[in-house]
């Protein structure tokens, strides 16, 4: 049975030259853990390591841990719950290592024999020692070092006041009388862990250290961090081993952006910093820096000067990301760029607060995913990988995740991993990251368009070209002409997007088609991903309905709702579709304008609404925002995306009317059919008369149900024989 930690007061220990005096941690299963290889026969172990360097795969995995790092604790001894950056974090990880048999716990006398017979059976202990002033100043200002050092001399009352002042907002830091020596040990542990990997004393290593470091800036502490452990360790290795350690990859998978690490290396061409984090448009911690000239974790910040292209931010739009998103980031961005960079050393800033179960991070990365990411990184730099602990605040999640990483480092294959579908917005983020870094990395250029260069050649976006072509076809076939939208905010957006048949105002029956742009299909060249016109197609299922409507003497108003409105200043090679809010604002403004200025003024009361794709939102906003039921004879919708409920706070009969006067075809693979509860919900009145189609995709659905929809529409209008007005006959 595991014993509880003893209470550790500020005066329990004094650290001198890396050794503890008066340390009282009795009955603690990780107490007084020295690096036991120091107490064993050094000549036997050193000789064994020297022989194993010939075959790096037989070298042991290193592990740096020191109980004294737990002595950094909050000076506020109130009955409040533990601070998230809890001393138990490293205790629980190391306890898990021992429980899983990764760390040797037997008699010291047996260690030389074990190291000789089976050197990879256990992790080889790397001692932690305090970093020197000279080492720390390789990545921090002397003034910053002096401030942290001063914590060693001030009173408990002053420490509490500092904690009260700093442990909020962006600083987010607590201090204690042992914070400075613990921070020195944390940096020193990171340094010697990286050194052991670079000099091949171990094949790879895991530094179980705290306080963490990646938020600490060159000249200030923040975010639970005093010194930035990883940059100091890298600078020491580059200085001491310039031939073996010139180029270094830092992969930071902590859920928070490593602002300090980024800014320290922002102009360094020899350090590639890649951070995968939650960004939330700059709202997620650490947020926007006070100085607007300082880069944050946005994907557009790529480094500067000689370091341009060496800073890669994969900033998720929100929390909730998991294995699918992280594996996609590795496969699409991290590994291709890392291989092109070809580092001499890989350092993982291993925060485990993106792990499933960590409430602060709010993400769902599993231990298996951490194992797979580690395994991929081990294919770089001849396997020289150093893992340095950063954040992670759920003790169970951080322990199981760290064990998965350690097992992989020791040579165990990663466990089987079933990947869920990637979040669509996350996929767009990865596409944007690729576009931002295409100028700097050959592997990122495939399929990326240099928009400024293309625009200089008088190029047009294809959706504008297609709509112009549609206009010409419909004008030639049916005499349709553009309807000018006299509203400043949307007139430019919908230029040529609304086409009408001649004499629409005199038509006895009208069909208003609100639809998405045509579908584009292309077969890319497998060599260079170029697109040839003869290998591309435009699929427009709406045209068949227009032809039919004209043949049945309907007046037609064709409304093409573009997924994006072209702006001359656009330079992004990939632009996502409008989000829900933007789509609704555009469509509502348009359909209400068309109703107020045209449709409601016409004499006919036999108007059919046909909604296709996401644009069928226009049907909903028209019904809710205008009293138009008396003039509408029926509604047909084709849906593959969100189902739109039609419900009004002022018209209690609207949902019932919609149910009785609509036909809503929903794709056979729609999510609503996968859950019985959802299926029951979509048959409620506010969703209309829902019909499950056996087809997938808008164009297939429209073709499959064309005859059925045509007959239904004809039954909804009294003028079913196709009579025309006297003016039309003339």
UniProtKB/TrEMBL annotation:
Residues 461-718 form the Arb2-like domain. GO terms for cellular component: histone deacetylase complex. One of its GO terms (molecular function) is histone H3K14 deacetylase activity, hydrolytic mechanism. Its main location: nucleus. It is found in: Nucleus. Coiled coil: none annotated. Responsible for the deacetylation of lysine residues on the N-terminal part of the core histones (H2A, H2B, H3 and H4). Histone deacetylation gives a tag for epigenetic repression and plays an important role in transcriptional regulation, cell cycle progression and developmental events. This is Histone deacetylase.
């Amino acid at each position: 049975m595991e014993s509880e930690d003893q209470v550790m007061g500020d005066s329990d220990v004094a650290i001198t030259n890396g050794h503890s005096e008066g340390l009282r941690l009795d009955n603690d299963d990780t107490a007084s853990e020295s690096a036991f290889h120091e107490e064993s026969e050094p000549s036997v172990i050193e000789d064994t390591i020297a022989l194993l360097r010939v075959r790096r795969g037989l070298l042991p995995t290193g592990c740096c841990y020191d109980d004294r790092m737990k002595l950094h604790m909050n000076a506020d001894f109130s009955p409040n719950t533990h601070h998230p950056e809890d001393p138990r974090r490293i205790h629980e990880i190391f306890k898990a290592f021992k429980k899983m048999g990764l760390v040797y716990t037997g008699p010291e006398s047996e260690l030389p024999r074990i190291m000789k017979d089976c050197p990879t059976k256990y992790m080889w202990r790397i001692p932690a020692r305090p970093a020197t002033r000279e080492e720390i100043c390789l990545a921090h200002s002397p003034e910053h070092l002096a401030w942290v050092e001063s914590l060693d001399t001030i009173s408990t009352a002053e420490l509490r006041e500092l904690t009260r002042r700093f442990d909020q907002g962006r600083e987010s830091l607590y201090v204690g009388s042992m914070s400075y020596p613990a921070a020195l040990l944390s940096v020193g542990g990171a340094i010697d862990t990286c050194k052991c990997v670079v000099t091949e004393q171990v094949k790879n290593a895991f530094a179980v250290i705290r306080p963490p470091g990646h938020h600490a800036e060159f000249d200030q502490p923040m975010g639970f961090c005093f010194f930035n452990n990883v940059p100091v360790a890298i600078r020491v290795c580059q200085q001491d081993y310039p031939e073996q350690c010139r180029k270094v990859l830092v992969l930071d998978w902590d859920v928070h952006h490593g602002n300090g690490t980024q800014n320290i290396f922002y102009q360094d061409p020899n350090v590639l910093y890649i951070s995968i984090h939650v960004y939330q448009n700059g709202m997620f911690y650490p947020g926007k820096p006070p100085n607007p000239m300082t880069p944050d974790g946005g994907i557009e910040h790529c480094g500067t000067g000689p370091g341009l292209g060496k800073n890669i931010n994969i900033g998720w739009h929100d929390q909730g990301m998991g294995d699918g998103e992280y594996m996609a980031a590795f496969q699409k961005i991290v590994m291709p760029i890392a291989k092109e960079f070809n580092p001499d050393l890989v350092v993982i800033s291993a925060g485990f607060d993106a792990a499933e179960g960590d409430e602060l991070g709010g993400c769902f990365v599993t231990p298996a995913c951490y194992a797979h990411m580690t395994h991929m990184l081990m294919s770089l730099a001849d396997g020289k990988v150093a893992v340095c602990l950063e954040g992670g605040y759920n003790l169970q999640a951080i322990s199981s995740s760290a064990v998965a990483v350690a097992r992989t480092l020791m040579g165990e294959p990663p466990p089987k991993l079933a990947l869920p579908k990637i979040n669509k917005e996350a996929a767009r983020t990865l596409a944007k990251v690729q576009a931002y870094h295409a100028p700097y990395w050959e592997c990122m250029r495939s399929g990326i368009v240099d928009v400024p260069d293309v625009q200089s050649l008088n190029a047009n976006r294809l959706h504008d070209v297609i709509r112009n072509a549609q206009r010409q076809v419909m004008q030639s076939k049916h005499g349709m002409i553009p309807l000018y939208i006299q509203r400043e905010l949307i007139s430019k957006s919908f230029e040529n997007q609304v086409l009408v048949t001649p004499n629409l105002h005199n038509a006895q029956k009208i069909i208003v088609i609100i639809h998405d742009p045509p579908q584009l299909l292309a077969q890319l060249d497998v060599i260079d991903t170029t697109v040839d016109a003869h290998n591309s197609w435009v699929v427009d299922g709406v045209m068949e309905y227009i032809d039919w409507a004209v043949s049945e003497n309907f007046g037609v108003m064709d409304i093409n709702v573009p997924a994006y409105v072209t702006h001359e200043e656009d330079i992004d090679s990939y632009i996502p579709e409008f989000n829900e809010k933007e789509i609704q604002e555009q469509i509502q403004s348009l359909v209400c304008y068309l109703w107020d200025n045209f449709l409601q003024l016409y004499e006919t009361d036999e108007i059919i609404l046909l909604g296709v794709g996401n644009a069928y939102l226009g049907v909903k906003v028209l019904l809710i925002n205008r009293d138009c039921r008396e003039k509408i004879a029926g509604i047909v919708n084709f849906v593959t995306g969100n189902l739109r409920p039609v419900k009004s706070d002022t018209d209690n009969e609207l949902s019932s009317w919609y149910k009785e006067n609509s036909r809503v075809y929903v794709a056979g693979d729609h999510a609503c059919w996968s859950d019985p509860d959802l299926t029951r919900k979509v048959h409620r009145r506010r969703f209309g008369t829902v019909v499950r189609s056996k087809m997938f995709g808008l164009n297939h659905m429209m073709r499959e149900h064309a005859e059925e929809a045509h007959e239904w529409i004809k039954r909804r209008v009294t003028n079913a024989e196709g009579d025309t007005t006297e003016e039309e006959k003339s």
